[in-house]
Amino acid sequence: MTGAALGGAFGLGVVLLLAGVRRLKAPSLASRVAPYVRDVVASPAADPTSGVSAAWLVVRTRTARVVGELSGGAESVRRRLDRLGSEDSVEEFRVRQSVWGFTGFSLCAALSILAWSGMAVNVPALLVLCGLGFVVGALACDQHLTSKVHRHEQRAAEEFPVVADLLALAVAAGESPVAGLERVLRVSRGSLSDDLGRVLGEVRTGTPVADAFLRLAARTGVPSIARFSEGLAVAVERGTPLVDVLAAQAADVRETTRRQLIEAGGRKEITMMLPVVFLVLPVTVVFAFFPGYIGLTMST
């Protein structure tokens, strides 16, 4: 422990010395010219090409590239990011995944140092443990993204009947699909509203209404929303009455939700019997037979 403390102090001193030398050297040409051209170009960010920040940036970028090459699945990550409606790219997700991996590695390394200093432990086993910590951290980041996508789509499926009914009312009142969608989005908040907001943004930038809804159907993972988007695109292209389409879609989703609730109740029936069998029934048996047992004991 004394050696570890001395080594940490020495490393901290070296880092502070390098930071001081970097601060004392002459300013660069970009930092001297920037105040005079600030209204022409954006202010340059801190130069990441020197010092500890450059080393960390290089390590993080290369680790993210290695993690992406080993795990593959760039298309899967891109698909999940699209379903979530995230603005992050696959490279940014890989960088975040590598940070999670480094966090797991650091925790395992700290535990390994404590175990090695307190008892005789096999060093290769500790190195394997640190590697497993990195892998577990990277996999945890991937699983976190998957769980976020599932929660987003579950909330969107729950919001869909209400949004479909509101859109049907707006269209029935004489508004166009885009105007009705704008009115619905002004009064609704949620996951489905965010997805429909992306559709509305694409329409405003010049994308045809049918193509925007077909893109929503392609990237969503909720079957009911995909059918709704495809049906709305077909109705816009062919002139089918939108009110009937939207009402039928909302009724279909409500019937699907009702069927899922009945199926979930049927699956949970055995689980619901567990407290009855293992808690209520034993207490009832004890209350029924215990007075008789006490009476027999006292009589004998």
Automatic annotation (TrEMBL):
Top-level taxon: Bacteria
UniProt-listed PANTHER family: INTEGRAL MEMBRANE PROTEIN-RELATED (PTHR35007), PILUS ASSEMBLE PROTEIN (PTHR35007:SF2)
Keywords (A to Z) from UniProt: Cell membrane, Membrane, Transmembrane, Transmembrane helix
InterPro entries the UniProt entry points to: T2SS_GspF_dom (IPR018076)
Residue intervals passing through the bilayer: 6-24, 99-117, 123-141, 276-296
Record membrane topology: Multi-pass membrane protein
Protein name: Type II secretion system F family protein
Domain spans labelled Type II secretion system protein GspF: 164-287
Cell compartments where the protein resides: Cell membrane
